[in-house]
Specification:
Blueprint: E1 3-4, E2 10-17, E3 22-33, E4 40-47, H1 57-65, E5 71-75, E6 79-85
Antiparallel strand pairs: 1-3, 2-3, 2-6, 3-4, 4-5
Length: 115
């Protein structure tokens, strides 16, 4: 199930971008299940501040980067946080429940035994 918001509601998604090796934040109106599988989410309807008189270089770079992007599919393993902004948010619901996925850190991997 897709979560869409009205004009004053949106999501701020903070994630690790492996191509730039940076932590980025993008604003979007819609987050839903991805067609790529259970470990991905789809982010679309990107929002950028254009009413401001101040030019923000980071905001302009993100706007240019996503100007032709219809949707962004992110692995749940790269997402740091998803913030719901707005007073009348309906919440985030997915068709495929991802709550049963287990994330193993490198500390959880068994260490090889020395001969």
């Amino acid at each position: 199930m897709e979560s869409k918001s009205n004009r004053n509601n949106f999501f701020m998604v903070t994630y690790r971008d492996p191509t730039q090796d940076k932590i980025l934040t993008v604003k979007a109106k819609s987050i839903s299940d991805s067609s790529l599988g259970l470990s991905f989410i789809r982010i679309s309807d990107f929002l950028f501040e254009s009413d401001s008189l101040l030019v923000k270089p980071d905001e302009e770079a993100m706007k240019k980067r996503f100007e032709d992007v219809k949707s962004l599919h992110l692995s749940i393993y790269t997402i740091i946080s998803i913030e719901e902004i707005g007073k009348k948010h309906s919440g985030l619901r997915f068709q495929n429940d991802k709550s049963n996925l287990v994330v193993l850190s490198s500390a959880d991997k068994p260490k090889p035994k020395k001969p």
